[in-house]
């Protein structure tokens, strides 16, 4: 059964260009039963959002900027999130913003036992990123929406950005889970990587999945195994440090 998700979007802080890709990404993690976007809709800067709200069934919430320089939208989102937490039957929240003001909200929702997914730009401050169970960068979704060869080439080039720090993170995670021969089930490795670093995503490095990312790094070796379950043969992937 799909998890019920409340999607709360900071309209003042997130571009509207990739809303379709954002909603498709959110659908991977559950059913967005509540979809709200917050902002001052008298502000011409939000006009682009107005065009995509109906086709994505997102409810606009009006929040006037009462005081110049103060972000009333953030306060409205936080209040609504707490209302939803206590009055609605949802399993998790998706907070769409690049603003660190939502760090405490994400922490509080997780303390209440809810899954928290964040979506924002790469400029999102680290405290908000690590406060979420998983954080997805909008830039990834932009790359996915582009299908021409030039974009694919650019995406491939990002593989060079796999840092020693990332390789060490993968390596220590494999060690944390490995058996006496050093092998670890790749599915478990992926889950633990996500817990250690919520913004870890193979797509950040130009790969659609964890397996091709691991294969591209010479520090690791892969083992494909088959096991029987009922009448089915199931393929399992294991990884270890060389």
Describe this structure in words.
The chain has 242 residues and is an alpha/beta fold. The protein folds into two domains: 4-145, Rossmann fold (3-Layer(aba) Sandwich); 150-241, LOTUS domain-like (Nucleotidyltransferase, domain 5, 2-Layer Sandwich), CATH 3.30.420. It contains ten helices and nine strands.
What structural class results from the helix and strand content?
A: alpha/beta
By CATH, the superfamily of the largest domain comes out as 5'-nuclease
How much of the sequence lies in strands comes to 15-25%
Mean pLDDT: 87
Strand order, main sheet: write it out: 3-2-1-4-5-6
How large, in whole angstroms, is the Cα Rg?
A: 20 Å
Low-confidence stretches: 153-158
CATH T-level topology of the largest domain? Rossmann fold
CATH architecture of the largest domain: 3-Layer(aba) Sandwich
Number of strands: 9
Into how many domains do the coordinates divide? 2
Residue share in helices? 25-40%
Distance between the amino and carboxyl termini: 39 Å
Tell me the name of the CATH class of the largest domain: Alpha Beta
Order of helices and strands: EHEHEHEHEHEHHHEHHEE
Could you give a short account of the major beta sheet? 6 strands, parallel
Number of helix segments? Answer: 10
Give the overall shape, derived from the CA principal axes: elongated
């Amino acid at each position: 059964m799909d998890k019920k998700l409340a999607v709360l979007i900071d309209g003042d802080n997130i571009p509207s260009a990739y809303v379709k890709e954002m909603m498709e990404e959110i659908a991977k993690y559950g059913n967005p039963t509540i979809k709200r976007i917050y902002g001052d809709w008298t502000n011409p800067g939000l006009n682009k959002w107005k065009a995509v709200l109906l086709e994505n069934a997102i409810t606009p919430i009006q929040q006037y900027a009462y005081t110049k320089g103060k972000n009333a939208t953030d306060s409205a989102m936080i209040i609504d999130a707490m209302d939803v937490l206590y009055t609605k039957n949802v399993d998790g929240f998706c907070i769409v913003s690049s603003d660190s003001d939502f760090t405490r909200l994400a922490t509080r929702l997780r303390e209440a036992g809810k899954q928290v997914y964040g979506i924002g730009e790469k400029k999102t401050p680290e405290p908000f990123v690590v406060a979420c169970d998983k954080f997805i960068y909008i830039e990834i979704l932009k790359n996915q929406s582009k299908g021409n060869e030039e974009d694919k080439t650019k995406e491939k080039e990002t593989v060079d950005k796999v840092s020693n720090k990332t390789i060490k993170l993968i390596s220590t995670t494999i060690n944390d889970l490995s058996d006496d021969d050093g092998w670890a089930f790749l599915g478990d490795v992926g889950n633990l990587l996500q817990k250690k670093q919520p913004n870890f995503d193979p797509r950040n490095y130009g790969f659609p999945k964890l397996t091709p990312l691991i294969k591209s790094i010479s520090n690791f070796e892969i083992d494909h195994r088959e096991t029987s379950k009922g009448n089915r043969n199931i393929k399992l992937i294991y990884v270890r440090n060389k």
